[in-house]
Amino acid sequence: MVRVRYALVLVFLLLFIGVMPFSAYSSRVVQIGAYNTLSVALMDNGSVWTWGDSPMGSSVPVMLDVSNVTAVAPGMNFILFLKNDGTVWACGDNRCGELGDGGNTSSYDHAVRVGDLSDVKMIAASGSTGMALKGDGTVWAWGSNNYGELGTGGTPGLLSGGSYSFYPVQVPISDVTSITAGDGNFFALKSDGTLWGWGSDDEGSLGVDVSDSGITVWTDISNNTRAVAAKPIQIPLSGVTAISSNGENTLVIINGSLWAWGDNTYGQLGTGNTISAGQPVKVKGLTDVTSVIAQTTYSVALKSDGTVWAWGQSMAGGGYLGVAGSGGVTTNTPAMVSGINDVTQLAGGYAHILALKSDGTVWAWGSNKYNELGNGRAGTGSLTPVQVMIDSQTASGAVVSVTATAPRITNGQSNDLNTFSIGVVILFILAGGFVYAFLLRKK
């Protein structure tokens, strides 16, 4: 009789495990990314989730049909994936060679491999250009070269209406340890601590004067002028540990302090005024900064204590930076974002901000005109951070193919149902076997 009771207890425990929500085994978000109105999240199990306005996005987070991913980099309507074997893959638009597969056919329903790149350690995306850093310190680029983003020299495509590379080409720079994408430009840190940049120098975003020998001012087919560095040039700064640029203004971290230059129309440089700067100026009132995001009209920084600070003005309107009391007035100096702490990572889109917390949850605030917040309620923005429900954190996420228009689960529910059903059947069989074995031994 005792053995029978033990058997029943065991059955109960197994069934309890079987009916537990799949969230009990949920994965954690380890990286977030945003570009314009698209948002991306990478889980520690190698799956990728996306939401927002793009061919791969959705009104709520959906899982892309790609696996074994260790890093993501969203661009303009395309996403790069770095896999655990060191190869790079991509999905989305390919009209400018964004996918780097040698052609110009877009691929929304599956990811394609970018060239024959291997041993890649880092990826970055800017507009319609992709970039990869290999383990040997070399940098490779593909896609649009309208503003010299490929860094290979020559005449940028802005003069002819378009210039592209449909396959990765090597950028003439070596001994690189990290790369960062701006908007129309790229930056690289070398092993000797020097900082290099190439591409658009609009508003002095590269941090060098237009008189620099590496800068050429071109006039495009629309008779607009644009300063461009067609090859990597050294930026006269040392001690830089992180950099962010949007093509019109740039922010760098040096010894925990922030320095900024470029356009300051909306106070996005954080200097207490709206005067643009051609040379680096110190951002007021911030120390112990670990990461920073520079957007066209606003900036946001993360401090070592997990607090988030923002300044400038959101394109969504007053208050959407998450800074209490900002209203519709430009915030010229950094102010702490209320309602969120323990943040480990930031990402910023055109008019929304993402934050990854230490517990693996993702939070968003700002515009939701194009489902940037991932809550299925387009048009209703948020002045304060709200949680984005991803993967098994919610029952509303669906597993879909790379294009959000072809879901595997068409009822809008998560794949927890399938996992639940199969798990329960298996556990019933196992439990029945245990009961039978115990009763047989009792005899």
Automatic annotation (TrEMBL):
Keywords attached to this entry: Membrane, Transmembrane, Transmembrane helix
InterPro entries: Ran_GTPase-activating, RCC1/BLIP-II, Reg_chr_condens
Keyword Metal-binding set for record: no
Annotated organism of origin: Methanocella conradii (strain DSM 24694 / JCM 17849 / CGMCC 1.5162 / HZ254)
A molecular-function term among this protein's GO annotations: guanyl-nucleotide exchange factor activity
Assigned GO CC terms: cytoplasm
Domain of life (superkingdom): Archaea
Protein's UniProt name: Regulator of chromosome condensation RCC1
